[in-house]
Amino acid sequence: MTPAAKRATSADVANAAGVSRTTVSFVLNDKPGYSIPEETRRRVLDAAVRLDYRPRASARSLAAGRSDIVLLAIPDLPIGAGISRFVEELAGALAEHGLTMVTHLAGARGQLLPDVCAAVDASVVVGFDAFDEDTVQALYRAGADVVLPPRVASSPALQPIGRLQADHLIGRGHRRLGYAMPEHSNLRSMAEDRLDGVVGACLDAGLERPTVLSTSLEIARAAQAVAGWTERSVTGVCAFNDETAIAVLAGMRAHGLAAPGDLAVIGADDIPTARLTAPPLTTVCFDLPEVARQRAEEIMAVLSGRESSAVSTLADLQVVQRSST
Amino acid sequence: MTPAAKRATSADVANAAGVSRTTVSFVLNDKPGYSIPEETRRRVLDAAVRLDYRPRASARSLAAGRSDIVLLAIPDLPIGAGISRFVEELAGALAEHGLTMVTHLAGARGQLLPDVCAAVDASVVVGFDAFDEDTVQALYRAGADVVLPPRVASSPALQPIGRLQADHLIGRGHRRLGYAMPEHSNLRSMAEDRLDGVVGACLDAGLERPTVLSTSLEIARAAQAVAGWTERSVTGVCAFNDETAIAVLAGMRAHGLAAPGDLAVIGADDIPTARLTAPPLTTVCFDLPEVARQRAEEIMAVLSGRESSAVSTLADLQVVQRSST
DNA sequence: GTGAAAGCGCTAACAC
DNA sequence: GTGTTAGCGCTTTCAC
Lengths: 325, 325
Known about the structure:
- 2 copies of one chain form a homodimer.
- By secondary structure, the first copy, chain A, is an alpha/beta fold.
- Chain A has 3 domains: 10-55, Orthogonal Bundle (434 Repressor (Amino-terminal Domain)), CATH 1.10.260; 69-153, Response regulator (Rossmann fold), CATH 3.40.50.2300; 156-286, Response regulator (Rossmann fold), CATH 3.40.50.2300.
- Chain A is 43% helix and 13% strand.
- Chain A has 12 helices and 10 strands.
- In chain A, the strands form 3 sheets. In chain A, strands 2-1-3-4 form a 4-stranded parallel β-sheet, with helices on both faces.
- At the A-B interface, helix 4, helix 5, strand 2, helix 6 and helix 7 of A face helix 4, helix 5, strand 2, helix 6 and helix 7 of B.
- The structure holds a DNA duplex.
């Protein structure tokens, strides 16, 4: 492997272009208010390219007082692959604004978020899930300029998913609904948010609250839940997400029940394998990339002082109907 | 939100502890060769804690010439959630060595890896998939000290998975095997590696090479592949991974065939929903966290000059048998 | 319009 | 053992 060749510095560029470092800095940063002659500008740009110059991030942020690093904190959740679309999109959108996003997956063994934040010198920390107040404080002390409170995967933001699931079932004649809650504790708050939407839809339709039962991704466990629902004459269940829905389907199979006749099931997130179940899983999907774009806008808004005006919402939320009835 | 409070600097700690910045630096970095009196040491540590002092990463790496950031580059693959276990574990293992790992997901819209590397001032870049030579060069120019060539998800490293799949099927009497290849082009090289293992096992057992057929995660597409295998009297198929295996199962269902009687299927990776199919999917699993730990050791080895001695291997590779026969 | 000079916070020789 | 002193590479105020 090639050892690192000597890296060009701002001074090298200045020399090569026959100007001072100041000028280089101005040109490369498009410093407003300093109209630099096209001629000089070109020379600098040229030299920079020729020398493959890249400002050293540490020097830059040390001098400027802030970096252009955005740290995305992903909590320790069994999240599906869909999330990666979101991550990529968010990174892309931020990149267009000159920000670099990197991700940190929380894990039992890993460092605490504030430590990571400090280590990478992030000036923005974006959370997926809600940060508790202590964490927020710690992040600010760790050097973050802005910490984005939960929006995407939290609180009211997720309710529309549950509401849409329930409305779909209600619209197809179901009067007693169930809700399949994941057992995994880290998924709890997200699930409760989605559940709130289901509850809201039920109440609005004059129905009882849904029968909430937990399940893991074990057939036996799911079968128990299914038994619970059928006992209470539930005819349709909204599952927290597609994986949970697949577990419910498996639980039904264990009882010799078939969807949607014996019990209708609707998932959420539209994971790739949702279409491979028997019967294919009806689910709710939304435009994650679009959510990411909105999110990026929020970040830019906060960064540039304007208060986060637009609150992001789930874009293109809709039911993907796969099995009849 | 609380605006960033003034952050304590090394000088503040020095004042509070009544020593000089040098001493602070030595104490905090456990500089070897400078036995500092326990007394002084304590004072410094105390002051640091009291002031919630954290060295500013940019200043530190600017002065030291290198950061302690490790950038993990994840290629644009539809990777499952299992990967997150690996990522967390790797981050954890590196953290124990004082390194901070962050992740970058390659994406069409995102920045190029070398740009990200430069932006976060990473001194180590770890790849998942193979980096081509140009990228490696670019990474070095972007400031990386070490770029770790592929090991985990590439080349011979993955063959044992395919071999184990095939051996399992062969051991149960199957004489004509099939291989379910994913259509997704980014998965190609990984799949070919696993396939090599299957081919090897077949040849070693004196069997013909497996019938390789591609499929997507669409039932119709999978059904085609299934037809192809049955036509050629294949009785057992090794799938690239569990998702592909699930697709094969769905394709079989479309033909009214049942596993494992009509066609035995074995997946790989042991994703959570593997146990929820009908019948439950037999698959191959391995200890990803352990692989991550080995990987971390390699990184540390390279960083400390010793040449990467141990080549990581798949740990605890084994078949998880779920359906009979 | 461009350059000189003063730091940003930290590390690491080098003296004391 | 501990403090003094240079920088690391860049931004940015302030003269020219």
